[in-house]
Design a protein that fits this description.
- The chain is α/β, with parallel strands linked by helices.
- 43% of the residues lie in helices and 14% in strands.
- It has 14 helices and 11 strands.
- β3 and β4 form a beta hairpin.
Length: 333
C-alpha cells in the first residue's frame, strides 16, 4: 500500500501549508471543540464530521434526549457554518422549507423569499413526521443542491448538508422515509446512551456552568471548511481497496435475507466516506479497517430486508455485519 505519514494539507501550495494547520489538524480541533458539548461520543462526532467533509447528508436515528440536535448545532458552530433548524410536523408544507413567492408591494411583482433550506447546515428534526410531498421537496435540495419554486430553480449553495433526526421506536403519526430518500443520506448513525462516567461528567458540567446552554466556539470559517472538503480529494485509496468496497456492496445484493441490495450510489458513498474518515483520523490514505468500520453506517440503510427476515426481527445492521465477516479484505505482502 502506497502511503505517507503526512496528513492532507489545505489547498494553497507548499509554502502556505507549511505555515498553517493541516486539514487533519483542523478536523481534530473541530472534534475537540464539539466534544466539549457532546461528551463521550467522539467516534460519532468523527463520523458526522467526515460525512460533512465528504459533502454528504446524515441521518441521526436514536431515542429522544441523547443530544442529536446538540450535535448538529455544535458541529455547525465549530465549522463556522450557517445553521437552520426545521421542526418537521404533519402539517409542514414544502414551501415552509424551500421558500415561496410573495408580492412586493413597491414593485407589484412576485419576489422569491428563500426558506430555511438556504443555509450551510439544515437540521431536519423528526424528519419522518412530515408527509411525502414535503420530504420530496427536501429530497431535491439534498440531491440536486437546488429547489424549484413556481417553475424556477434556485441553487442552495455550497457547502450544504442536511442532518436529519428520527425516533426509531415511535411509529404513530409518522411517514416512513422512502428508499429513494434514505439512499440520499451518506450515513445513518445512532448516538446511544452515554457511559456512566460520561453522563456523570455531563451532570457535573451542568452544575459548574450554571446554565443549560453549552458554549461552542468556531474553530474554522466557511472558506476553510470548503478547503478541508477539497483536501479529501488528496486522500489515497489503493485499487485493491476500491475492489474490496465494491465486493462488500455487491455481496449485499446476493445476501439471502436482503430483497434489495445497495446500489452503485452505495459503492460511491463507501469509498468517498472512507477518504473523509481517514482525513479526520489524520491519514492521507485509506486502510481496510476504515472500509470495514464504515460499511454498516454507509450501507445498512440502503438495503431492504425480505419479508421473512423482517418477520424474524432481523436488523439490517446484522445482515451487513455478516457480509463484512464473509468478504475477505485485501492483504499486502
Amino acid at each position: 500500500m502506497a502511503t505517507t505519514d503526512r496528513p492532507p494539507s489545505l489547498p494553497g501550495g507548499e509554502a502556505a501549508s507549511a505555515t498553517r494547520p493541516s486539514a487533519a489538524d483542523l478536523a481534530v480541533a473541530i472534534v475537540d471543540e464539539v466534544e466539549r458539548a457532546v461528551l463521550g461520543k467522539r467516534d460519532v462526532i468523527d463520523l458526522v464530521l467526515a460525512s460533512m467533509l465528504a459533502g454528504g447528508h446524515v441521518l441521526l436515528e436514536d431515542v429522544p434526549g441523547v443530544a442529536k440536535t446538540l450535535l448538529a448545532r455544535s458541529l455547525a458552530t465549530a465549522c463556522g457554518l450557517d445553521f437552520s433548524r426545521v421542526q418537521f410536523t404533519p402539517d409542514l408544507l414544502p414551501s415552509d422549507i424551500t421558500g415561496t413567492l410573495v408580492l412586493d408591494l413597491a414593485t407589484r411583482t412576485p419576489e422569491f423569499r428563500p426558506g430555511p433550506v438556504f443555509c450551510d447546515v439544515l437540521l431536519a428534526d423528526e424528519i419522518n413526521r412530515a408527509p411525502a410531498k414535503t420530504q420530496a421537496a427536501l429530497l431535491e435540495a439534498m440531491q440536486e443542491r437546488q429547489v424549484t419554486v413556481d417553475g424556477r430553480s434556485h441553487a442552495v449553495g455550497r457547502p450544504f448538508a442536511v442532518i436529519a433526526t428520527q425516533n426509531p421506536i415511535e411509529a404513530e403519526g409518522t411517514y416512513p422515509l422512502p428508499e429513494a430518500q434514505l439512499d440520499r443520506f451518506l450515513v445513518r448513525v445512532g448516538l446511544g446512551y452515554p457511559a456512566r462516567d460520561d453522563e456523570l461528567a455531563i451532570l457535573r458540567d451542568r452544575l459548574t456552568r450554571r446554565t443549560a446552554e453549552v458554549s461552542v466556539s468556531p474553530v474554522v470559517d466557511v472558506t476553510t471548511f470548503v478547503a478541508m472538503q477539497r483536501a479529501v480529494e488528496d486522500v489515497h485509496v489503493d485499487p485493491p481497496l476500491v475492489s474490496y468496497a465494491l465486493d462488500l456492496v455487491t455481496a449485499t445484493r446476493d445476501e439471502p435475507d436482503i430483497a434489495l441490495g445497495a446500489s452503485p450510489r452505495g459503492s460511491l458513498a463507501l469509498v468517498t466516506l472512507s477518504r473523509a474518515w481517514a482525513l479526520v483520523r489524520g491519514r492521507d490514505y485509506v486502510g481496510p479497517d476504515d472500509i470495514r468500520t464504515l460499511a454498516i453506517p454507509a450501507l445498512s440503510h440502503r438495503v431492504s430486508l425480505d419479508d421473512d427476515a423482517w418477520v424474524r426481527g432481523t436488523q439490517a445492521d446484522d445482515v451487513v455485519r455478516r457480509v463484512i465477516d464473509r468478504v475477505p479484505a485485501p492483504t499486502w505482502s
